[in-house]
Amino acid sequence: MDSDYHNLGNSLQSSGRFEEAVAAYKQAVELNPDFSWSYHCLGDVLLKLERWEEAVAAYKKAVELNPDFSWSYHNLGDALLKLEEWEEAAAAYRCEIALNCDFAWSFCNLGDALTKLRYWEEAIAAYLKSVQIDGNLPGIYEKLGFALGQTESDLKSVLEKCQLQVTPENQRFYLDLGRSLAKFDRPKSAIIFYKILLTIIPDCAVELDELLEEQEKCVSVALEEDRALASSRATVAQKPDDCWSYYNLGAVLSSQKYWNEAAASFLKAIEINPDIPWWFYYNLWEVLLEQNKLDEVENLYREVVAAKPEAFWPYLNLGEVLTRQGKIEEAIDFYRTVSFKQSLGSIISKRTGKMPVPQEDTGILPVPQEDTGILPVSQNWNLKPVKVPNFIIIGSQRCGTTSLYTYLAQHPQILTPIKKEMDFFSWHFGRGIDWYLAHFPPIPEGEQFLTGEASPSYFDYREAPERLYSAFPEVKLIVLLRNPVDRAISQFYRLSDLKWEGRSLDRAISDEVARLNRNPEYIIGEEPGNYLARGRYIEFIKNWLDFFPREQLLILQSEDLYAGAADTVEQVLEFLDLPEYQLSEYQNANPGSYQAIGDSMRDWLRDYFRPYNQQLEEYLGIKFDWA
Predict the structure, then answer these.
(1) For the chain, what is the radius of gyration of the CA atoms?
(2) How far apart are CA 144 and CA 185, in angstroms?
(3) CA-based angle 170:172:175, to the nearest 5?
(4) Burial, 238: exposed, middle or buried (Cβ in 10 Å; 0-12, 13-18, 19+)?
(5) Which of 85, 177, 417, 493 is the most interior residue, by most CB within 10 Å?
């Protein structure tokens, strides 16, 4: 019966078996093509698999059969946003709002579509309505501030066109909105808002004083931003042939929401030196995707690999471009090509003892520049694709994972994938297991090589343990835990150095406290902002041990690795059943340097993490001695 397949689809979707759920829902709609709920559920699972066009088709059928169900319109809009079909997405959200006008995300997403269409006044109206319903949506003030900064109309006329007015009854809402813009958005937008708002509400003395005080703070921050931008431009003028000058300029521009110019700077950085592991710099790709520049990057890299077929990084970067465009199958081909190149070079290195130097930022061991023709693969080895990684370093961030991975990569019996961090079981699960496995090196048949990756994002990602266990239940997992105070500080300054974090440490911590008070379990993805949440290790360890037996997790203390890397590596090799192997030098592969923070902040962080550390020690029976 169709209901049996529908219920089976529900069960499979709940357990994370999305491909099987798709098949079940398709069988359900084939048996009963008039049941809208099966189409809606099919759309939901296709949305999770990032199969946007199929999801759109499913949701369109759902609303055709049941035009009164608002949630189908909402999800249809979400899928259309992913396909960059802005007009259709806006239409879908408007249909949803006509049925349900109390859902803040509907107005927020409508605002996103209207922003893409540059319908600024309509976007402002949508964002304002979203804030009125729920002022705690992530990023809502930033989006509203950006739209306010784009319109040439004054705020009063915009509000009148939107049939919104500042009255004695609602002026508090607008005053609070001004303060929120100062806190969450770029200060320049807040200043614009304040100046307009002061002309609308001239008789609120106390509120005006507070706003002026906030405005002074905004001016100070804006001046600092201007200095950073001026410095970056000066560096480009001094070093016009340096790719990093343009990258840093792009990072500063993107942090200040100058998207078009940021994209141009990032493109210039790639053009100057395409033979760099640009795939690692996620902020670059987010801006290029946002500004529809990926086609240009794809064409550039196709020309590079055509001219330099022996190259390594251009193949990997082209794979990243194609992945970001949703061309997964084509990306897999390039990943397999570069995996073959690296596997061949690594085997030669291990047999000759000539190991390459790790890439400074990523910790990756690049392909040795050997004449690989001395050992033709077709005559000497039968290379087999990897079906299962033997081990994964799952975290945590800024705890020494890059150093440990680099040390293990030099073991004679370990071959590494083309990326240290694939983030598959966290952020990129929808790309499919074939995409993931394409990154691993093919192994010579009959050789005793192990392979594994290191993605610190897995440790604190809620769904990662179940996903990983479903795919590879016998994989060995390695966890590095560092004093969470030091981890938080290190992460903050690392992201600051990369130009991914533009706030002060005090501001970043206070923002996160406010966010966690609203939603204690909210972990942001790749962007900055998890300095506290990622250090509450006990929550994540419990999640992993709900799926994996304790003997499959090797839990190490980062401080032990820093104090005696050889001993820690020996522990790991024993855990992996590999023979001991001593390196001539154990160099920190991803060090950070920064000034000591004030005692008051360190004491606050220490007090914050103390209860979580105590729970961790009691749960694991391990004493960490984190003062």
Answers:
(1) 26
(2) 8
(3) 120
(4) exposed
(5) 417
- Does the pLDDT of residue 380 top 50, yes or no? no
- The span from the CA of 301 to the CA of 314, in Å, is 6
**pLDDT of amino acid 31:** 87
Is the separation of the CB atoms in 439 and 364 below 8 Å?
Answer: no
Tokens 């304790």 locate to: 550
CA atoms within 13 A on the CB side of 290: 20
Q: Any idea which residue has 């300029």 for tokens?
A: 249
Tell me, rounded to whole angstroms, the distance of Cα 162 from its chain centroid.
35
Phi then psi for residue 35, to 5 deg, are: -100, 105
| Residue type (1 letter), 392 | I
Average pLDDT value over all residues in the chain: 83
d(CA 58, CA 578) in angstroms, rounded, equals 50
Q: How far is CA 544 from CA 57, 319, 454, in A?
A: 37, 31, 16
Residue 579 CB partners (closer than 8 Å, separation 6+): 413, 573
SS (H, E, C) 287-349: HHHHCCCHHHHHHHHHHHHHHCCCCCHHHHHHHHHHHHCCCHHHHHHHHHHHHHHHHHHHHHH
How far from 389 is each of 1, 311, 323, 439, 449, CA to CA, in Å? 40, 26, 21, 11, 11
pLDDT (tens digit, 9 = 90+) per residue, 518-530? 777 666 666 677 8
Place of tokens 């465009």: 325
8 A C-beta contact, residue 575 and residue 447: no
Lowest mean pLDDT among 277-281, 352-356, 391-395: 352-356
In the beta sheet, which residues pair with residue 443? Answer: 384
CB 314 within 8 A of CB 275: yes
Q: How many residues does the chain have?
A: 627
Determine contact, residues 429/467, Cβ cutoff 8 Å.
yes
CA 250, CA 232: separation in Å to the nearest integer? Answer: 9
CA–centroid distance for 450 within its chain: 28
Instruction: Say yes or no to pLDDT of 364 above 50.
Output: no
Three-class HEC string of 351-389 = HHCCCCCCCCCCCCCCCCCCCHHHCCHHHHCCEECCCCC
Tokens matching residue 171: 């002026």
- Asked whether 561 and 393 are in contact (CB, 8 A), the reply is no
SS percent in the chain: helix, strand, coil, step 5? 65, 5, 35
DSSP code of residue 441: P
Phi, psi (degrees; rounded to nearest 5) at 601: -70, -45
Q: What is the pTM of this model?
A: 0.65
Read off the pLDDT of residues 169-228 as tens digits, 9 standing for 90 and up.
556 666 666 665 555 444 455 555 555 556 665 554 455 455 556 556 556 666 777 788
Q: What is the pLDDT of residues 21-58, one digit of tens each?
A: 889 889 888 888 888 898 999 999 998 888 999 999 99
pLDDT band at residue 474, thresholds of 50, 70 and 90? very high
